[in-house]
Task: inverse folding
């Protein structure tokens, strides 16, 4: 099962992280215990990046928010494959993560692949061309992870192929992945329940009947304890809550599945919802559904909801209360035209609000506490250093 794979990969990565720490002369002796016992974050140079050793459950140092980055060490929402055209090469992408202190990453394909015979690279540039889920990207990600050592980055592979409006084939497709890449996939998503922006590219929103027909694959996810991350627009500026009932129906139908709702339900089509009404909706859903998690990725969310001081404060307060079930991410799409500077900027923007959350929420969101918990990973977010009194 996935845990075996992840545990093995994690141990290898942890071992290499120790070697890296040693080679920089930051530990006094060799061995992980010595690192854990003697290295506190405040002893490290200013602006130094976190290392995997800090996430060992035995680590007894602390994370100094003054000295260390406010950007998340976890990117739970990263599309390693673009809509069309070439991706950023896998090894180059790993460099982007290492350069920014991102240690844990979910590797998504993309839920809207353009046809291989199309020269189009972004679906909104070719409205009318179908952009549909496909298994191609999941194969490519799995193969890359086998072919290249992610070196210091713990990668969790995600199944991005399911078409939620046509779910009948999904169990067979999971079985196919099981045959070709057994035990390698620990996540499902980003899958599109309803995505308004995709309507011009043959995207078909799922209906209640379709959602009922998810039952077989949702049972498989429960057995394997695999979360499903769903993009489902809350609505648009004309009808802000138009699609809310679909997401509610999913939660009602599958209360025992771990479900992640992407972007807090927001999108480029919904930029005028009041923060207070939005939080009222989220709060009600979080209170009613213990297995619901929220993804706060995408710069569109920052640009429209986290920039202004008063609305930002409302979200910070909400994050402080629900940090244990909130997941950060960039929503970076690794198209070949992107580069490391663009990734760094997207990480910076999507993490900006984390400057303001309290220490407990920072541990859970930025330092991976909520991520380790949803995946039952054998890592622990370090505690936050207390200011000297
Ligand atoms: Zn995405």
Result:
């Amino acid at each position: 099962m996935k845990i075996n794979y992840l545990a093995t990969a994690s141990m290898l990565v942890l071992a290499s992280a120790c070697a890296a720490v040693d080679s920089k002369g930051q530990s006094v002796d060799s061995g992980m215990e010595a690192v854990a016992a003697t290295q506190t974050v405040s002893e490290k140079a200013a602006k130094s990046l976190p290392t995997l050793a800090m996430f060992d459950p035995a680590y007894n140092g602390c994370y100094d928010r003054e000295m260390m980055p406010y950007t998340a060490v976890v990117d739970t929402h990263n599309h390693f494959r673009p809509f069309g055209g070439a991706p950023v090469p896998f090894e180059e992408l790993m460099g982007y993560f290492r350069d920014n202190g991102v240690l844990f990453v979910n590797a998504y394909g993309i839920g809207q692949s353009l046809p291989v015979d199309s020269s189009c690279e972004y679906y909104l540039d070719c409205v009318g061309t179908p952009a549909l889920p496909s298994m191609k990207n999941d194969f490519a990600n799995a193969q890359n992870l086998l072919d290249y050592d992610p070196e210091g980055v713990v990668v969790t592979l995600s199944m991005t192929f399911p078409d939620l409006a046509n779910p009948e084939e999904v169990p067979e497709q999971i079985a196919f992945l099981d045959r070709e890449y057994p035990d390698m996939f620990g996540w499902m998503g980003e899958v599109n329940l309803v995505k308004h922006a995709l309507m011009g590219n043959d995207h078909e929103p799922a209906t209640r009947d379709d959602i009922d027909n998810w039952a077989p694959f949702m049972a498989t996810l429960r057995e394997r304890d695999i979360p499903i991350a769903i993009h489902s627009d809350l609505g648009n500026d004309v009808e802000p809550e138009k699609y809310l009932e679909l997401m509610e129906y999913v939660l009602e139908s599958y209360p025992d599945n771990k479900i992640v709702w992407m972007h807090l339900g927001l999108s480029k089509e919904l930029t005028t919802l009041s923060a207070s009404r939005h939080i009222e909706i989220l709060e009600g859903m979080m209170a009613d559904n213990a297995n619901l998690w929220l993804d706060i990725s995408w710069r569109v969310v920052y640009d429209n909801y986290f920039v202004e001081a008063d609305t930002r404060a409302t979200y910070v307060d909400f994050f402080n209360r629900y940090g244990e079930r909130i997941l950060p991410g960039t929503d970076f799409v690794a198209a070949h035209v992107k580069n490391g500077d663009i990734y760094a900027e997207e990480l910076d923007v999507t993490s900006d609000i984390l400057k303001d959350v309290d220490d407990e929420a920072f541990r859970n969101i930025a330092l991976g506490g909520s991520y380790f918990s949803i995946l039952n990973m054998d890592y622990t977010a370090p505690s936050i250093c207390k200011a000297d009194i």
Observations:
- The radius of gyration is 20 Å.
- Residues 2-23 form the longest helix (22 residues).
